[in-house]
Amino acid sequence: MTEFDLIARVFAPLATAPGAFGLTDDVAMIAPRRGCELVVTTDTIVAGVDFFQSDAASVVAKKALRVNLSDLAAKGAEPFAYLLTLLIPEEIGLPYLNEFAESLNEDQNRFGLSLLGGDMSSMPGPLSISITAFGHVPVGRLVRRNGARAGDLVFVTGTIGDSGGGLALLKNPALSASVDVHAVLAGRYLLPEPRVAFAPALRSASASIDVSDGLLADLGHIAEASCVRVVVEADWIPRSPELIALWGNGEDAIVRAATAGDDYEIAFTAPTLVRDVHTPVTCIGRVEQGSGVVLVDAQGREIAVPRAGYCHF
Q1: Is the pLDDT of residue 72 over 70?
Q2: What mean pLDDT do residues 174-188 have?
Q3: C-alpha torsion 204→310→241→169, nearest 10
Q4: CATH value at residue 116
Q5: Are the C-beta atoms of 162 and 261 separated by less than 8 Å?
Q6: pLDDT tens per residue across span 75-100
Q7: Tens-place pLDDT, residues 231-289
Q8: Are residues 223 and 289 in the same domain?
Q9: Taking a C-beta distance cutoff of 8 angstroms, is the pair 274, 205 a contact?
Q10: Is pLDDT at 312 greater than 90 in this prediction?
Q11: Higher pLDDT, residue 37 or 313
Q12: Are residues 163 and 131 in the same domain?
């Protein structure tokens, strides 16, 4: 099949928005929703780095899309469209791409967005997937990193460290874990659940970020952008029973969870609790005058953290 045959057969059915023109043109057209601003984010995932070469196409497709939806959600934005760029090695054939597209369609229906366009090319290296996602947020309601103020509280959705535990199990099959623990933790790594439904409630937060590189590392970005100090109470960090079963409940286990990446939860600051009925939210600390992010124990003593999170370079 030629590139254009592949686009027409596999990906054009995903381009349901009027401005996508059925992927028959060189551009797409976006008309912002009345009273809203456009929010744009982009992320790339690469085989052997962000997912396993053996992962199913259905899992890879959804992970590529969902890591972008997590960024939009953390800004208070609702997704509506995306661009897709594929760099495809020779061993990837039509069955893989069909499964890939079918899974994107499932998530399009679930999260309410459509393909606008993109690009693809063959390459000798690993499969590489780049997605640029677009969202709507009411004018003036974008939640940035730089709004945290001394006196705010620090919150996080869901549980922290599960994806790191899942990655450890997938990389080392010799680790001891029950079938249920393995399924829950590995599932959190393979297929994140972006907090899209939480986006409208989050607009009352003062600062926000999605937890992709590690809870402490990402809160450090808020601290830096807001020129404040973020204090995280180690004992308050929510961890799942499955992660505790795998790593234990000691201080080292908490540090490991707080510095693991790929959780795709939302960490945010606000003067008071922000919640909705569908999303678990936990207060994990406070914002003070100063700089940086620190993890403290129940006595208020700072816990040494050798590495705050994942570093891409």
Answers
A1: yes
A2: 93
A3: 150
A4: 3.30.1330.10
A5: no
A6: 999 999 999 999 999 999 999 999 99
A7: 999 999 999 999 999 999 999 999 999 999 999 999 999 999 998 888 999 999 999 99
A8: yes
A9: yes
A10: no
A11: 37
A12: no
Q: CA nearest 74: which of 188, 244, 218, 195?
A: 195
148 within domain boundaries: no
pLDDT of res. 176: 83
Minimal CA–CA distance to 185: which of 258, 238, 242?
242
Q: Under DSSP, is residue 17 helix (H, G, I), strand (E, B) or coil?
A: coil
> Half-sphere exposure of 254 toward its Cβ, with a 13 Å CA cutoff?
17
Which positions ≥6 away from 299 have C-beta within 8 Å? none
Interacting residues of 298 by C-beta distance below 8 A, sequence separation 6+: 233, 234, 235
pLDDT at site 117: 96
Please count the structural domains in the chain.
2
- Structure tokens given for 223: 């601290």
Residue 230 token pair? 């973020």
Residue 251 inside a domain? The answer is yes
Cα–Cα distances (Å) from 237 to 93, 103, 224, in that order, read 43, 33, 21
- Domain coverage including residue 212: 153-296
The pLDDT value recorded for residue 50 is 94
What is the distance between the alpha carbons of residues 25 and 13, in angstroms, rounded to a whole number? 15
Alpha carbon distance 272, 153 (integer Å): 7
SS3 assignment, position 39? strand
d(CA 50, CA 64): 9
Q: Are residues 121 and 193 in the same domain?
A: no
Contacts of 2 (CB under 8 A, 6+ apart): none
To the nearest whole number, what is the mean pLDDT of the chain?
95
Cα-trace Rg, the chain: 20
Distance of CA 307 to the CA centre of its chain: 20
Q: Does pLDDT of 15 surpass 90?
A: yes
Distances from the Cα of 112 to the Cαs of 67, 74, 206, in angstroms? Answer: 15, 17, 26
99 and 232 inside one domain: no
Region 125-135 average pLDDT: 97
